[in-house]
Amino acid sequence: MFIEQPPTWFRRLMFQDSFWRIPSQPKCVYLTFDDGPTPQVTPWVLDVLARYGIKATFFCVGENVARYRAVFEQVKASGHRLGNHTMNHISALTYESKAYLANVEKANVLIQSDLFRPPHGWLRFGQASLLQKKYRIIMWDVVPRDYSSRLNAQDVINNVKKYVRNGSIITFHDQPKSWRNIQEALPASIEYLMEQGYEFRML
């Protein structure tokens, strides 16, 4: 459960001023996608979202943006929100603040967003404080673990069903590790959430 839905004490301990969940009425959820863009998965995700009339937020890795510029432009042209996920998907715990922020800024030259999500969900307090001067730090309320080789698509769907609630920020991944599960899990999860009366919003 710790990965799928971080407990309240952890959220308060780590980054109290970050966004984990945004409840409202009517009840809503926020679909987000990490680690892209990738030609293997992102265009398919865009097609699925278009089919259901949903806008989402894509937290992009800068080196993928540079490598797959056409796919990145496709995300932008589809009207989705963009977020920064560092230049090289680096862990904040292994970098000093100056180097880490430089990596984030290098990515933002390409991405140009005021949203930031740290890879692996970790930041030092000093890093978070500095980043919050420029970015809204977006964490998550539900990670269905679509990337896990230990789970199948039904497990991923069940995680969505078990943990989602009003205002959940849900994190899928538009990268090759998720492909085996996301093909079934993303459409099924969207349909389940629609059946439950959730509205889909962008951050």
Instruction: Quickly give the CATH architecture.
Output: Alpha-Beta Barrel
Q: Ranges with pLDDT <50 over ≥5 residues?
A: none
Can you tell me the CATH topology?
TIM Barrel
User: What is the terminal separation in angstroms?
Assistant: 24 Å
Structural class: alpha/beta
The CATH superfamily is Glycoside hydrolase/deacetylase
Integer count of domains: 1
State mean pLDDT (0 to 100 scale): 94
Secondary-structure element series: HEHEHHEHEHEHEHE
Strand content: 5-15%
Q: What does this entry look like structurally?
A:
The protein has one domain (8-201): Glycoside hydrolase/deacetylase (TIM Barrel). It is 41% helix and 14% strand. The protein has 8 helices and 7 strands; from the N terminus they run αβαβααβαβαβαβαβ. The chain has helices spanning 8-14, 42-52, 62-67, 69-77, 97-111, 125-131, 153-163, 179-195, and strands spanning 28-34, 57-60, 81-84, 115-116, 136-137, 168-173, 199-201. Strands 1, 2, 3, 6 and 7 form a 5-stranded parallel beta sheet that branches. Helix 6 (125-131) links the parallel strand 4 and strand 5 (136-137). It is globular.
Question: What is the gist of this entry?
Answer:
With about 200 residues, the chain is an alpha/beta fold. The protein has helices at about 10-15, 40-50, 60-65, 70-75, 95-110, 125-130, 155-165, 180-195, and strands spanning about 30-35, 55-60, 80-85, 115, 135, 170-175, 200.
